[in-house]
TrEMBL record:
Species this chain originates from: Longibaculum muris
Any GO molecular function: beta-glucosidase activity
NCBIfam families linked: PRK09589.1, PRK09593.1
Protein name per its UniProtKB record: 6-phospho-beta-glucosidase
Transmembrane parts of this sequence: none
Length: 470
């Protein structure tokens, strides 16, 4: 038997700032991402102070999910989605982030969106903050380095937990929480030239951990049915050779870049190796008396994570480095590489699923996985994305082995960018992930018309057969 259970949550994932567009509609304030995705470098470019009039920002329009969601969800329903992952744009609910009263128009938008999902048989899976903190909090408070952010975030959480009670059950507190250290700008910690940049980044991380643990407690109090997870970017690294130094380096990278974040959120305390690391950095992270108690009380219910690629670790400084999602590993000669230099490794998914599960023994949720590709339309106006089908098929096969052969408990699978959207890393449309094509290019031309790629019908049969027909 190679079918998965009927309640396995097959679906897809997007994020507000990369899909919704309508960046200044409905009372929405500016978010940090509204000034960060212009040009070719996406989130890694320098953050400007505000909108530059002469620059085109692809995510200001996104794929206009804000106005197209009914049509988009109808297509997802046709594929048989049982869940749909998106995020709430914090700045739609609190345009500045520090207000007392929420913006009713923003709340109403997500009410309608979640109602539409439920009507179409999809469980909403909601990321509370997917890189989209209000810009005002960055400019006036210094982002997450400021402790006040905990209260603002908690107030936001309280409002949305109350409002969407009974509609949303699955939540994640911060998208790829490791980005707070790997790319602190995403948490509003700016200015790398300052001496205290690293200290502020670790302080910001501590604040996010405390905020997440308080949000978990609050979410459970408001609705005991809520399932609240962390969301970690998995940076799988293998030793390049069997040389003990390489093994040691790979293990260290796994610990520091991936497990340190999930360890804190799942186990509720700072692990010994993180304490040592902070000590070695010679920085001081300020903690309030109840912080450690909060971490303990606010352990997450599941581990949500993204997985795209893996890399290798080598003690040889001359070995070629590889690209990847905030990865700093070296090239693995046994793997193929995507157009953007991300190494493709389906077996790495089974590996990380097993590592997580043996470590924590709580349910896992694969909330991002997929292949970014510059799709070309053929002479019949169709996209034959066999490369995407091959990528997803191989990953689903490994996921199935983890479930059926290894006994790992997995809630669901939501491939990233199920509808084409603006890439976070490049800030452009041309790095596409979708089953659904959106007619929009990097310069902002196109009708926004939706159409099915070949992978659309393929994924539909995967879901209809409970993962049997790949
Ligand atoms: C993850 C982010 C997503 C998404 C994805 C793909 O890090 O959570 O927002 O963008 O990576 O990355 P990219 O858009 O750079 O191809």
């Amino acid at each position: 038997m190679s079918q998965l259970s009927k309640d396995f949550l097959w679906g897809g994932a997007i994020a507000a700032n990369q899909a919704e567009g309508a960046y200044n509609v409905g009372g929405k304030g500016l978010s940090l991402m509204d000034i960060a995705t212009a040009g070719k470098k996406g989130v890694s470019r320098h953050f400007t102070d505000g909108i530059q009039d002469h620059v085109y920002y692809p995510n200001h329009d996104g794929v206009d999910f804000y106005h197209h969601y009914q049509e988009d969800l109808a297509m997802c329903q046709e594929m048989g989605f049982r869940c749909f992952r998106t995020s709430i744009a914090w700045s739609r609910i609190f345009p500045h982030g520090d207000e007392e009263q929420p913006n009713e128009e923003g709340l109403k938008f997500y009410d309608d969106l979640f109602d539409e999902m439920l009507k179409k048989g999809m469980q909403p899976v909601v990321t509370i903050s997917h890189y989209e903190m209000p810009l005002y909090l960055v400019k006036h408070y210094g982002g997450w380095a400021n402790r006040k952010l905990i209260d603002f975030y908690l107030h936001y959480c309280e409002v949305i937990f109350d409002r969407y009670k009974g509609k949303v059950k699955y939540w994640m507190t911060f998208n790829e929480i490791n980005s707070v250290i790997l790319m602190p700008e995403i948490a509003g910690v700016l200015d790398r030239s300052r001496d205290d940049f690293i200290e502020r980044s670790y302080q910001a991380a501590h604040h996010q951990f405390v905020a997440s643990s308080q949000a978990v407690q609050l979410g459970h109090k408001i609705d005991p049915n809520n399932k609240i997870g962390c969301m970690v970017l998995t940076l799988v690294q293998y030793p390049l050779t069997a040389k003990p130094e390489d093994v040691e380096l790979a293990e260290k990278a796994m610990r520091m870049k991936t497990f340190s974040f999930s360890d804190i959120q799942v186990r509720g305390h700072y692990p010994h190796y993180v304490k040592k690391h902070v000590e070695r950095l010679g920085i001081h992270v300020h903690m309030e008396p109840n912080d450690l108690e909060d971490l303990k009380k606010g352990c997450v219910d599941f581990v949500g994570f993204s997985y795209y690629s893996s890399s290798a670790a080598s003690s040889d400084p001359n070995v070629e480095k590889t690209g990847g999602n905030l990865s700093s590993g070296v090239k693995n000669p046994y793997l193929e590489t995507s157009e953007w230099g991300w190494q493709i490794d389906a077996k790495g998914l089974r590996y990380i699923l097993n590592r997580f599960y043996e470590r924590y023994e709580i349910p896992l949720f694969i909330v991002e996985n997929g292949l970014g590709y510059n799709d070309q339309i053929n002479e019949h106006g169709y996209i034959e994305d066999d490369y995407r089908i091959a990528y997803l098929k191989a990953h689903i096969e490994e996921m199935k082995k983890a479930i059926l052969d290894d006994g790992v408990d997995i809630i669901g699978y939501t491939p990233w960018g199920c509808i084409d959207l603006v890439s976070a890393g490049t800030g452009q449309m041309s790095k596409r992930y979708g089953f659904i094509y959106v007619d929009r290019d990097d310069q902002g031309n196109g009708t926004m018309k939706r159409s099915k790629k070949k992978s659309f019908d393929w994924y539909k049969q995967v879901i209809a057969s409970d993962g049997e027909k790949l």
